[in-house]
Amino acid sequence: MQGLSCGTSRIVGCRFSIYPMADNFVDIIKGALEEVDTAKVWMQTDDVSTCVRGRSEHVFDVTKAIFTHAAKTGVHVVFNGTFSIGCPGDSDADTYMSEDDVRLNEEQARVEQVEVATQFALYPMNNPDYMQVIADQVAVADEHGTFTKGVHYASRLDGDVHNVFQSLEESFVNASKTHERSHVTMTAAVSANSPSTKDK
Question: Tell me: domain 12-87+111-192, CATH 3.30.70.930, correct?
Answer without folding.
Answer: yes
